[in-house]
TrEMBL record:
This is Replication factor C small subunit. One of its GO terms (molecular function) is ATP hydrolysis activity. It holds the Pfam family Rep_fac_C. ATP binds at G46, P47, A48, G49, V50, G51, K52, T53.
Length: 322
């Protein structure tokens, strides 16, 4: 098995737009810029690990060809969130001439929503002033955190979480290249824990590959400290049956023996409930309790007590409903 010293998310980052999985519509629209040789300012929004940076780099490679490294620069706005980063680094790059016969350069600004509103206002002016020599690709998780005048100057691309088929395709590709065998259940488990985030998926695969080159679902759940969906179903089932003692035992097992973090467990219960077919009133009550527990834990309440209280409330709601 090849060196665990290389991080697979980097090693297998697609170099071309064509090699990206999922995001087909976006990829198609981006390729049309390459064909036409023109590029507006772009705003990429969406959750983490779905290909925003990958698409920006691949687009630059295809757009500029051999001179891409001279004409493309990546900056992360969360390193320096204030106006100085715009005044210094961004302006400096934008004002200098493109190289190797290119008509403009491209600056990719990751986590643009980390910029303060003042810095965004300065960025807007820079985008206007240097539009001839520089195009911007801004990336963020939430477009609502980007000021309107910037949004209106950009073509907006909304990246979605990757679906199971896309995650599975890339995971299988990487596993084959690393000569790792994966069961179908392991692929399904990786897609479950990834929640649409390819970075999470590939890190889970690499984490399990440290143990063995034959990977099954149990190894994925264990190395990522995630409960199996069946374990969550059991826990919720015991609550719904009114078996508080049984539910408490299952909860203890997950928290203490399996080492699953309370926040993760809450998230998994929430995900399970949203996909279950069950009495709507009971589902509403459960989700309401989850919201409370989640808030209290985030405010610093004792997580184990909150988890016990949560299953107690589940049991009470189920009994009321019966
Ligand atoms: N659509 C995709 N196809 C194939 N691999 C992908 C895709 N999206 C992400 N990846 C893989 O996941 C890694 C992280 O993706 P990327 O850096 O593009 O995420 P991002 O959307 O920019 O996230 P962030 O908002 O956290 O910066 C990449 O290095 C690549 O290996």
């Amino acid at each position: 098995m090849e060196g665990n010293s290389t991080i697979w998310i980097e090693k297998y980052r697609p170099q071309t737009l064509e090699d990206m999985v999922g995001q087909e519509e976006i990829v198609e629209r981006l390729r049309s810029y390459v064909r036409s040789g023109s590029l507006p300012h772009l705003l990429f929004t969406g959750p983490a690990g779905v290909g925003k940076t990958t698409a920006a780099v691949a687009l630059a490679r295809e757009f500029f060809g051999e001179t891409w490294q001279m004409n493309f620069r990546e900056l992360n706005a969360s390193d320096e969130r204030g106006i100085d980063v715009v005044r210094n680094q961004i302006k400096q790059f934008a004002r200098t001439s493109p190289l190797g016969g290119a008509t403009f350069k491209v600056l990719f600004l990751d986590e643009a929503d980390a910029l303060t509103p003042d810095a965004q206002a300065a960025l807007r002016r820079t985008m206007e002033n240097y539009a001839q020599t520089c195009r911007f690709i801004l990336s963020c998780n939430y477009s609502s955190k980007i000021i309107d005048p910037i949004q209106s100057r950009c073509a907006i691309y909304r990246f979605k979480g990757l679906d199971e088929a896309a995650v599975a395709e890339q995971v299988r590709r990487v596993a084959a290249a690393e000569e790792i065998s994966l069961t179908d259940d392991a692929v399904h488990a990786i897609a479950y824990i990834a929640e649409g985030d390819m970075r999470k998926a590939l890190n889970a695969l690499q984490g399990a590959a440290i143990l063995s080159d034959r990977i099954d679902a149990r190894m994925i759940y264990e190395t990522t400290s995630t409960a199996k969906p069946e374990e969550i179903a059991d826990l919720l089932g015991l609550c719904t049956k009114g078996d508080f003692t049984g539910a408490q035992g299952a909860l203890r097992h997950l928290l203490r023996n399996r080492g699953i973090a309370p926040g993760e467990l809450i998230n998994q219960c929430f995900r399970a409930l949203t996909s279950y077919q069950m009495d709507t009133a009971l589902k509403v009550a459960y989700i309401d309790h989850i919201g409370e527990a989640d808030f209290r834990i985030s405010e610093g309440a004792d997580a184990e007590i909150q988890m016990d209280a949560l299953i107690a409330l589940f049991v009470l709601s189920a009994q009321k409903q019966a």
